[in-house]
């Protein structure tokens, strides 16, 4: 028995170490190397198989099969592994390239380069790209195909998130030829593995629900020990089922438009980031990209942006560009963190960063130089007007609507009067600005707005969405909210720990104050997330900024729900929420709110993100719980009872946290299989999520691993295990990369 236990958990440890090493090797040698030498190797497959077999034998020897829900929970993972094995050995994946006008194709190229034969032929009849209304930004790609099977034939469409299945073969839209005359479809033939794997997923969901109500489970014992069984059960179930401008202008030398005039520019529509939005959104992103904030010396973003448009000779000498990294500063010849546009040129007007793409620089230095180069190009595009695509024009040839700047090549054959208006209106505005005739400037800007309404018509965003976006742009909550939440969290943490060490309550007044601040912060995040949802037309969980904002929302909501039964949930909610908000500002202080392709609009993807973010929030609570216990232990007071209680609370949180992560991973796998044809691609984010799941699963086995019964060991584990969560989210995003590095 002891040998079986040692073998089971040791093999899981070997799997964890192997997966960690594989992600590092992939960064150094590439995805192809690890796919063939590690993930696709016979020894790696055998490792999973032996681990599953020994674990099942160990469970049976321990009579776990007498607790049906617990046994079913473990058996579901074995079934999932078996399904993956069947897919590995029997499934086929590859691609087929089709051209309109060609004969039907009866084979496809496997991932390993060999050719597989299909029992039917497939022919491309037509390929089309669907664009977002009023733009040239692709929304969806559709291949219309005909399948010939003997004497019969049928037609079907293959598009993003809309697969075509025939005779056990599934076809997914993968890519297309630049001339729009050809299409590449991903092909998957896995008649047995998917069914077995999906059976394991369904069994996992069913067994998790049953486990929550199993009388002899550790989860129910912890609930009984902590009291208030019904309320804690409801909380756990809920967790698992969550789906100064004027003075600044004087300082700047008057080289800006007055705020009301600049605001008129902000009301215009502009084609930016693949969508049509108010120009103030572009101005806000532009200012944030250059100097790290949405304002500069008290000037609004619109004033900064229009300053570059109409006062270039002044702004090129203004040290507004924030430069990161000593290598980039050294190359530009600046001492501090701020550069002006003139710093990018030599005395002979040579561009100092002209050779950054030539190679020879370490990756970190090259990244710093590229960021500086990007900011230079952004400022240059604003100066030349290339960034200001505010003129909608229809192509006389086919009637399609495009958005142009005055510097772009306009459609051939457009009316002369319209051509003159597009080419000359901003030049006329520039002359009026030089004359300080601001009333006339406003008049001309409004005429441009009238032109936009006439030419674009229904392609423009609705007035409601435009108003919502302008409100969102003015909230500017994340930075201030993050700092406030962190400060309140730290103060509250010390306050609650002090009260617990003295076996007292924090007091009604303090408790009411914390409650009001919790509700206010939660309401503010709800409003901002709701606005983003309405503006973008999809649940705001599509990038790193939005997922971290949602994690902050989850942390505050969970702390609000648990505050009566778990005192430290209050400061934990503030601290976790504050960290999540501040982290969301690191990578993208003001991200684009772009429409999503149908493949990213799936409700499965939203549920996947929700479940994973909830698990991360709970893991963060466990980590902070451990920090609190260690702080109490170091206070030299008699806090053993409080430390044990905190350990029990962390153990209780571990169950919904692990279950949420497991369900999140496998719901994401189902979404990936529906969208891309494979439910697991060994992407670094996927691998580290699996590593995190395996690490935290160990703490649920207190009956086998008795060391987890020790409160202080459990607290130390909770702190150290959270490193894997940090690597899963931040390490992959900023170091390892991969398909999921945006999230």
From TrEMBL:
It is found in: Membrane. It comes from the Bacteria. The chain crosses the membrane at residues 7-25, 37-59, 71-89, 192-211, 232-249, 480-500, 512-535, 541-561, 568-587, 607-631, 652-674, 713-736. Residues 70-179 form the ResB-like domain. This is Cytochrome c biogenesis protein CcsA. Residues 541-740 form the Cytochrome c assembly protein domain. One of its GO terms (molecular function) is heme binding. It comes from Candidatus Avibacteroides avistercoris. Signal peptide: none annotated. One of its GO terms (biological process) is cytochrome complex assembly. Pfam families: Cytochrom_C_asm, ResB. The lineage of its organism: Bacteria, Pseudomonadati, Bacteroidota, Bacteroidia, Bacteroidales.
């Amino acid at each position: 028995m002891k040998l079986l236990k040692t073998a089971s958990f040791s093999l899981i440890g070997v799997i964890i170490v192997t997966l960690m090493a594989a992600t590092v090797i992939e960064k150094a040698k590439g995805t192809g190397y690890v796919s063939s030498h590690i993930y696709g190797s016979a020894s790696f497959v055998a490792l999973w198989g032996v681990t599953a077999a020994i674990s099942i034998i160990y469970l049976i020897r321990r009579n776990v099969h007498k607790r049906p829900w617990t046994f079913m929970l473990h058996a579901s993972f074995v079934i999932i592994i078996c399904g993956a094995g069947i897919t590995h050995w029997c499934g086929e994946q590859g691609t087929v390239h089709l051209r309109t006008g060609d004969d039907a194709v009866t084979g496809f190229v496997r991932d390993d380069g060999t050719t597989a034969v299909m029992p039917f032929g497939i022919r491309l009849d037509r390929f089309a790209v669907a664009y977002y209304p009023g733009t040239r930004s692709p929304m969806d790609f559709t291949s219309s195909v005909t399948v010939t099977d003997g004497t019969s034939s049928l037609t079907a469409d293959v598009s993003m998130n809309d697969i075509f299945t025939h005779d056990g073969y599934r076809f997914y839209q993968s890519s297309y030829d630049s001339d729009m005359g050809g299409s590449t479809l991903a092909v998957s033939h896995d008649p047995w593995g998917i069914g077995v794997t999906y059976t394991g997923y369904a069994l996992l969901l069913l067994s998790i629900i049953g486990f929550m109500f199993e009388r002899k489970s550790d989860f129910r014992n912890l609930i009984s020990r902590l009291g208030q069984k019904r309320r804690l059960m409801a909380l756990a179930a809920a967790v698992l089922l969550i789906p100064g401008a004027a003075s600044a202008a004087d300082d700047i030398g008057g080289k800006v438009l007055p705020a009301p005039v600049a605001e008129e520019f902000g009301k215009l529509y502009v084609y930016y980031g693949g969508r049509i939005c108010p120009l103030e959104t572009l101005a806000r992103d532009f200012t944030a990209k250059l100097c790290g904030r949405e304002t500069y010396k008290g000037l609004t973003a619109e004033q900064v942006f229009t300053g570059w448009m109409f006062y270039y000779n002044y702004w090129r000498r203004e040290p507004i560009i924030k430069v990161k990294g000593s290598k980039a500063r050294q190359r530009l010849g600046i001492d501090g963190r701020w550069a002006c546009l003139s710093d990018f040129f030599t005395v002979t007007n040579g561009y100092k960063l002209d050779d950054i793409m030539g190679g020879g620089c370490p990756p970190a230095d090259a990244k710093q130089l590229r960021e500086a180069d990007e900011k230079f190009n952004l400022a240059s595009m604003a100066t030349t007007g290339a960034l200001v695509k505010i003129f909608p024009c229809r192509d006389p040839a086919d009637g399609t609507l495009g958005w142009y700047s005055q510097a772009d090549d306009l459609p051939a054959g457009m009316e002369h009067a319209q051509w003159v208006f597009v080419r000359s209106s901003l030049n006329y505005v520039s002359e009026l600005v030089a004359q300080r005739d601001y009333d006339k400037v406003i008049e001309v800007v409004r005429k441009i707005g009238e032109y936009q309404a006439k030419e674009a018509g229904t392609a423009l965003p609705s007035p409601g969405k435009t108003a919502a976006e302008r409100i969102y742009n003015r909230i500017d909550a994340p930075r201030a909210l993050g700092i406030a939440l962190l400060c309140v969290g730290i103060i509250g943490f010390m306050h609650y720990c002090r009260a617990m060490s003295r076996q007292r309550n924090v007091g009604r007044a303090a408790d009411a104050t914390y409650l009001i601040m919790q509700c206010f912060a939660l309401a503010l995040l709800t409003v901002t997330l709701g606005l983003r949802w309405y503006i973008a037309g999809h649940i705001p969980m599509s990038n790193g900024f939005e997922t971290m904002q949602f994690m902050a929302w989850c942390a505050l909501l969970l702390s609000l729900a648990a505050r009566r039964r778990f005192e430290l949930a209050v400061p934990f909610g503030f601290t976790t929420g504050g960290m999540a908000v501040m982290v969301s500002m690191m990578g993208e202080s003001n991200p684009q709110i772009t429409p999503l392709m149908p493949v990213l609009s799936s409700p499965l993807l939203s549920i996947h993100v929700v479940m994973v973010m909830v698990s991360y929030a709970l893991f963060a609570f466990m980590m902070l719980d451990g920090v609190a216990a260690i702080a109490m232990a170091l206070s030299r007071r008699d806090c053993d009872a409080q430390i044990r209680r905190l350990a029990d609370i962390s153990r209780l949180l571990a169950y919904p946290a692990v279950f949420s992560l497991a369900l999140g991973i496998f719901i994401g796998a189902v979404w990936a299989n529906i969208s891309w044809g494979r439910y697991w691609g060994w992407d670094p984010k996927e691998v580290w999520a699996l590593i995190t799941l395996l690490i935290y699963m160990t703490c649920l086995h207190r009956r086998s691993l008795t060391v987890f019964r020790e409160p202080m060991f459990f607290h130390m584990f909770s702190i150290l295990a959270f490193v894997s969560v940090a690597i899963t989210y931040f390490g992959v995003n900023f170091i390892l990369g991969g398909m999921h590095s945006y999230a």
